[in-house]
């Protein structure tokens, strides 16, 4: 005799007669029944698109306007600060949604008061923030600027220049932050108790990035070793001084005050470093060589910057800008005692054919051309390369420290999610043909749109306008500041095995089964930007939804797939 499947958690609650915020009483045939409210599940491609659906749910009063908790499963914190004025965050959500990116979509909703506590649960291979029990911090605007800052004295915020003491902010807004590994949250330790106490009896949003289960670093092979060395020389952030005389007996308030002072000093130095490099790059983009006084004061830095720009090749810039780079390089090399050999040029056309379609596609891409992963070595190897990429300066949006110019993917220039799914199926069946090229030949000719507002839609790679060169310089400045010092603070990269993914899902299920139902579930695939291995995405997504079915039951899940394909 065939046994019936084990009832879901919600069915068990009904059988026990328990009441929850997840359901409401109805009358039927003289008896009270307790049907559960539907839980909206939204699946997006780029993680920043989740904020759109959160705001829609708030606007339609399906979730509370204030006091929400965010349970955030991800391999990346996504807690960077977008370059958006504080007035825009609170008064113009449409403009805000256009400017947030995959690494900076959470904090604006915290500043707006919608979310007052973020619980980030991450796999063991992700270490961009220090694990901590629930703690209170502040977000606000420093008195000399209208851009947002936070008072968390960690490299993640200091390196992007977004740290500032709460005492020097105008009307700082407190919020809670909890950071723990997924495995740690599944135990009976104090961390797990903290997480449950934060979420219990409060409305919370369950947010899951599928790169939680298997993670790629799409930047690993985009530049040569020589180019990465130049980027590190120029853009490596100053290190915060190590606190001396601190041990387990030191008062935590004293430690935090000392760390705040160190972080403030380091942030000021970091901003000065980035502003100087940006000024130089904008001067060169206007077709003017750097002043001799700048070269005399900073010969090594100017020489390194020009060497890095020259490594991109003359096709990337207008003749006027290229001449300014060359003349500045020559002047700086005369002041450098032993000028190193020029870095080999990596030309864009080596990776992307230059045709009319490419000329129409610029907004300086952020998406590599992805091809099926070659079956070399053990597929369970954590160091496995996720996809073949070019050495072009047009890269995915970085999910780490600094604010990159990435925005929503341009429909004309990105790989669709369906193409990635088809390619994953082809890989699983052992096929060797490049399905992406077969499905959309133009995908190899250009990359996705992630540039920001400063780049016009009709700008072209080889455009002979000063405005385009300035936009490219700003893009490269933001990108390189994110990629610097990748040996000390790299992006997480771990292509996990089936067993590892299963263990993570079981830990997630164990925690969620102890909580009441979320008011909204948002899911990000993160495959077209290179963070979730595209050969694994179909299986990861399928098994994740099977987990949701076991936890909540498919009868109360209302799923919306908001991505191409």
Automatic annotation (TrEMBL):
Skewed-composition ranges (Basic and acidic residues): 429-448
Membrane spanning stretches: none
Segments of this protein annotated with the region Disordered: 368-464
Residue stretches of biased makeup (Polar residues): 384-394
Pfam families noted in UniProt: UPF0489
Bias (Acidic residues): 372-383
Family from the record: Belongs to the UPF0489 family.
Name recorded for this polypeptide: Uncharacterized protein
Biological classification of the source: Eukaryota, Metazoa, Spiralia, Lophotrochozoa, Platyhelminthes
């Amino acid at each position: 005799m065939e046994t019936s499947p084990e009832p879901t958690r919600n069915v068990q609650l009904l059988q026990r007669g328990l009441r929850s915020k997840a359901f409401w009483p109805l009358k039927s045939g003289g008896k009270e029944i307790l049907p559960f409210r539907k839980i909206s599940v939204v699946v997006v491609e780029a993680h920043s698109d989740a904020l759109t659906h959160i705001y829609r749910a708030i606007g339609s009063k399906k979730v509370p306007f204030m006091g929400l908790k965010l349970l955030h499963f991800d391999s990346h914190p996504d807690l960077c600060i977008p370059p958006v004025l504080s007035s825009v965050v609170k008064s113009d959500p449409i403009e805000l949604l256009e400017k947030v990116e995959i690494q900076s979509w959470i904090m604006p909703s915290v500043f707006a008061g919608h979310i007052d506590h973020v619980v980030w649960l991450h796999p063991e291979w992700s270490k961009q923030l220090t694990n901590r029990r629930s703690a209170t911090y502040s977000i606000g605007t420093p008195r000399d600027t209208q851009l947002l800052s936070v008072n968390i004295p960690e490299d993640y915020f200091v390196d992007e220049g977004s740290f500032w003491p709460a005492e020097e902010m105008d009307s700082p807004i407190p919020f809670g932050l909890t950071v723990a590994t997924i495995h740690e949250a599944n135990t009976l330790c104090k961390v797990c108790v903290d997480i449950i106490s934060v979420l219990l009896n409060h409305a919370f949003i369950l947010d899951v990035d599928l790169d939680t289960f298997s993670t790629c670093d799409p930047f690993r092979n985009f530049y040569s070793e020589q180019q990465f060395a130049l980027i590190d020389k120029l853009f490596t952030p100053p290190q915060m001084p190590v606190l001396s005389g601190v041990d387990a007996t030191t008062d935590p308030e004293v430690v935090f005050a000392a760390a705040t002072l160190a972080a403030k000093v380091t942030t000021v130095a970091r901003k000065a470093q980035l502003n100087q490099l940006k000024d130089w790059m904008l001067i060169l983009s206007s077709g003017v060589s750097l002043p001799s006084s700048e070269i005399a004061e900073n010969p090594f830095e100017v020489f390194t910057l020009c060497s890095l720009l020259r490594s991109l090749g003359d096709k990337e810039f207008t003749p006027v800008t290229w001449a300014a780079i060359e003349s500045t390089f020559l002047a700086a090399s005369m002041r450098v005692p032993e000028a190193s050999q020029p870095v080999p040029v990596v030309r864009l056309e080596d990776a992307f054919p230059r045709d009319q379609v490419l000329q129409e596609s610029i907004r300086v891409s952020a998406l590599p051309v992805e091809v099926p992963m070659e079956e070399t070595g053990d597929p369970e190897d954590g160091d496995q390369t996720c996809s073949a990429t070019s050495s072009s300066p047009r890269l995915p949006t970085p999910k780490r420290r600094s604010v990159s110019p990435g925005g929503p993917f341009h429909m004309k220039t990105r790989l669709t999610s369906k193409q990635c799914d088809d390619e994953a199926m082809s890989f699983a069946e052992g096929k060797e043909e490049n399905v992406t090229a077969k499905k959309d030949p133009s995908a190899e000719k250009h990359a996705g749109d992630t540039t920001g507002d400063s780049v016009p839609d009709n700008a072209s790679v080889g455009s002979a306008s000063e405005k385009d060169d300035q936009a490219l310089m700003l893009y490269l400045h933001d990108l390189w500041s994110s990629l610097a010092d990748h040996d000390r603070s790299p992006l997480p990269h771990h292509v996990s095995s089936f067993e590892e993914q299963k263990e993570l899902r079981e830990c997630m299920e164990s925690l969620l089964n102890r909580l009441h139902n979320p008011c909204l579930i948002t899911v990000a695939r993160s495959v077209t930007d290179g963070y979730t291995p595209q050969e694994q995405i179909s299986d990861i997504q399928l098994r994740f939804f099977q987990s949701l079915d076991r936890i909540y039951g498919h009868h109360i899940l209302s799923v919306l797939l908001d991505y191409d394909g």
